[in-house]
Amino acid sequence: MINFFCLKGSGKTTLLDAISGRLGHKDNFFGEVYVNGRHLKREQFRDCFSYVPQNDTLLSFLTVQESLTYTALLTLKKCSNSSIKKQVDAVMTELSLGHIADKIIGSRNVVGISGGERRRVSVAAQLLQDPMDLTSVDTRSKEHELETYSRVQEFVSAYRNSEIFSKVLAAIEKTKYMKELPPIPFKNKDSPNGFEQILILLRRTTRNLSRDKIGIIMRLLQNLLFGLFVAVFLLRLGNDLTQGAVQDRVGLVYQCVSAPPYTGMLNAVALFPALRAISDQESKDGLYKKWQMLVAYIVHFLPFSVISVAIFSTFIYWTIGLYPDASRFGIFFAVVLASHMIGELITLVILGMVQDPNVVQSGIVLLNSAGVIVGTGLVRTIEEMPKPLKLLSFLTFQRYSSEILVVNEFYGLNFTCGEGNSSTANNAACVLSQGARFIEENYPGALSRFTADFLILYAFIPVLAIIAILCFKLRENH
């Protein structure tokens, strides 16, 4: 490890980024790097060098020991758990972190370790990758720090004014043409394979987010809270057309199409940017690829999505009184689940392209609203829309989810009209005495498209996951 003592803005970070292989492919890079006389290719830089970035990017709810252990797991493959523990303990001892090993990292909103301790954790994470330690300042005590800093300055000054400096430059040129050269001291490259890395990232992500108790409760109950709000207004659905039997069901379908995707979007905006920042840093160190963190997060949110939507669907379906059939409840649950997951996946796609989470949140609100308006036909029937918007509706998942939910609820449903249960009363609302007629007038052909709509809706999930992965692969070059 090399320490640089230079003026602000003099190019320290750019130089370190260049040496450690952190510069993107689009950045200009001139010159050559030699280690022990051997020419080092640009793609090999990160395998040999490390440095601690200015900003400490750590997961808030992991303890110091857990954070360093996961870094070691991502770096080392064949080491036993006891061996990894020894290495973690050794580096914590070296950087005086042993007394805070079981304290969480913390953040602005969560009390954790101090800023100086966070800095030492970041240094420890780099040391676990086994980089080329040449000169360093000992920060274990103020006395050692002043002494070693002064010594380094003396070395720098003496070295620049010595004949050795000139001879070394000449030797570097000479070694370029030697036949036998000493090997390049690469970092430990016995790292886990891609699947094992994803599993480690999944474990780390789950452990970190599981410590946020309030966050977990909100993720599981956010859809239920929305359901309670809707239930207050609808109470119990009836079959009397004059009492809004159709209107209430249409409104409920509209809410079930628009709200669950939005809660999924909020989850991704709230949780993933911190993980993305970690992956941006650790991928530059060569620990794993950015898309692997994305895959780990997708696997992580699946059970939360299932449980949250199951709680919401069970409450809203049977409390409000939708079509009383177990198989139709299963379809309702499956559609709401797909919509919720699609909302989160769309947000992940955008987060792969846009850095600012606030911009992403604003964008997804507009995107979700536009999809509901264009795709559902609940604001204006699709048949009445201008042709460009009608064609655009095929690209929205809301088109398929709304058609499925309308058919699922209205098919086979018979309505009454006012007192006496007469379906032929002189009332304009009484024209639609059968649910099937409402479907054919507002969603022509939806009955025949039911299975196709369901398959297309669920096809959005793998397609969006693949697009998200591709977006994060593109981030590797930036």
UniProtKB/TrEMBL annotation:
It is found in: Membrane. Residues 9-131 form the ABC transporter domain. One of its GO terms (cellular component) is apical plasma membrane. Keywords: Membrane, Transmembrane, Transmembrane helix, Transport. Gene3D superfamilies: P-loop containing nucleotide triphosphate hydrolases (3.40.50.300). The chain crosses the membrane at residues 216-237, 252-273, 294-318, 330-351, 363-382, 454-472. InterPro entries: ABC2_TM, ABC_transporter-like_ATP-bd, ABCG_transporters, P-loop_NTPase. GO terms for molecular function: ABC-type transporter activity; ATP binding; ATP hydrolysis activity. Its main location: membrane. It is a multi-pass membrane protein. One of its GO terms (biological process) is cholesterol homeostasis. Pfam families: ABC2_membrane, ABC_tran. Belongs to the ABC transporter superfamily. ABCG family. Eye pigment precursor importer (TC 3.A.1.204) subfamily. This is ATP binding cassette subfamily G member 5. It comes from Junco hyemalis (Dark-eyed junco).
